[in-house]
Design goal:
With 220 residues, this protein is α/β, with parallel strands linked by helices. It has helices at 45-52, 75-85, 101-111, 116-129, 145-157, 175-190, 202-205; strands spanning 3-14, 17-29, 34-38, 60-65, 68-69, 86-90, 163-167, 194-199, 210-215, 218-219. It has one domain (33-57, 72-219): Rossmann fold. Helix 4 crosses helix 5 and helix 5 (145-157) packs parallel to helix 6. It starts with a strand and ends with a strand. Bound molecules: adenosine-5'-diphosphate (ADP) and magnesium ion (MG). Residues 12, 14, 19, 21, 39, 41-47 line the site of adenosine-5'-diphosphate.
Amino acid sequence: MLINTKGLTKVYKMGNIEVHALRGIDLQIEEGEYIAITGPSGSGKSTLMHILGCLDTPSSGTYLFRDREVQNLSEDELANIRNQEVGFVFQTFNLLPRLKAYENVELPLIYSNTKASVSEDRAFKVLEKVGLQERINHRPTELSGGECQRVAIARALITNPKVIFADEPTGNLDTKTGNEIMELFSSLHKEGRTLIVVTHDPEVSSYTNRIIKIRDGILT
Ligand SMILES: Nc1ncnc2c1ncn2[C@@H]1O[C@H](COP(=O)(O)OP(=O)(O)O)[C@@H](O)[C@H]1O
Ligand SMILES: [Mg+2]
């Protein structure tokens, strides 16, 4: 199994106030699934995605990622998972504005000390895969929103991860462009990748094979 959680909770402490963002999540996801996590704003979608992607740790409960108990992994092991096994796509793209498209895309390889000639070559290939072969030298300000999101998807793909987590990936895009991004995700799913897409848009979740609903930190 890819993802197996039991009783996951997350409490954010802000001074004297505790925010119970997740209140006992039991979730199983198999390799190769295409999943939407939906729910209203503030229901815990991003918190859950960050924990599943090993960007954050739960307050209690257990999380097995590919049969490894995440709580028992070292910082290095977690960093390796984040860098090699999962890819992330965010609503606001999170591109570095001064870097060209291909330079943004090759960043994950630079962080893992890949030779420049190799990482550039890989960046060109994944940019071609997302349909941006004509835009490799453009900076984010010289690209449309949909193109920026394709660059971000190429960056997520460059380490060839099995799993892609996307948090409201179409939230800043118009409907047509958003649908094009979901088509791209569908083609990645057909290649055998696991996709987990957080959204509150029913049109977006209709592309997926399973919808997980969350409300007030609980799956419904
Ligand atoms: N870093 C944080 N510190 C404190 N509270 C947070 C933090 N992140 C999220 N929250 C709170 O946790 C709850 C769930 O947030 P979030 O997971 O971002 O929901 P969603 O993505 O569904 O909108 C909300 O009440 C939010 O205000
Ligand atoms: Mg969110």
